[in-house]
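Protein folding task:
====================
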Amino acid sequence: SWSTVELTTTPFEGRRRTVTLSIVDWEDEGELQLVVRSLPSGLPLAGAAVDVDAGLRGGLSTSDPFVTGPGGRVRVPHREGVTYTLSAAGHAALLVTPPVDLDGDSMVVELRRNARVHGQIAHFEPTGGGMVTLVRATATQGGGGQLRVIDSGGSSASDLRSARAVVGASSQWEIAGITVPARSEALERIDVVLTELGQSRTLARGLTIRPGDDIEIVDPWAQGERLEVRVQYGSGRTAGRGVQLELMSERPEFKGQSVVQASAHLDAEGRAIFASVPTGTWTWGVRCTDRGGAQLAGRPLTGRRALGRLLHDGMGEVQLVILSLIH
């Protein structure tokens, strides 16, 4: 039921104002019992907050949230068109609108527990900074692969910050609060990439992240050996700034295509140094970027590439010679 009252006030200016207020009595509108559970465990979720919003039907929202008890139950005001926003520590918030044909006066709501990915970086240099990012690897029609930053928290760009973490001085990192969208069972084909000192390397490949997962990443580069690569053109000229060196390996799920596992920009002497790289045979690639304005015989080389194979035996320096560049 609704009631209308008139309230007369006297502001500081001394003029009287009359305000008409419409008040709804929630008790006459009915109640709904929400039973809140945590996924994936399915256990009752105590302490979950429920904000009630009357939506566009002309009612007034409640000012304080309702809170679930030990059994995950709470009774809230209810009428057709009302919406509830449910939130709980460590879980993704959820907006719920009960169906018009709701059977009975009780409704089960499940909140998905956030996931967490964490680890420790080997051979980390704190003064150089470091950022760990979750990315989704996708195959490309032209061969090779690409890495795209994923949105782990929703659809807005601001949510991307929850897919990144700064590496601390202790070389540890953590990405918490990862939300799996309600329409998905899991985030699939997720790579974990570290960027530091102008270099990047992949820490994990092809992860599947489900609600509530707690995944520890062991740095696969910890057992590698130092690798120093010097690059020059067939003419003997050093390939310097503006050239990026990439180390690639195959991804079986991409039908034999290779994707970048580590990369670094060459210095002025045509050199790239990796503190730790697993020994073995790698596919290498160089890519001329607009950084540094790479040129050969006075012509800009931006966009040109070269590919080859190198053997990293842990014995020190590897010399690469670029015989030709392609677009």
The longest strand covers residues 199-209.
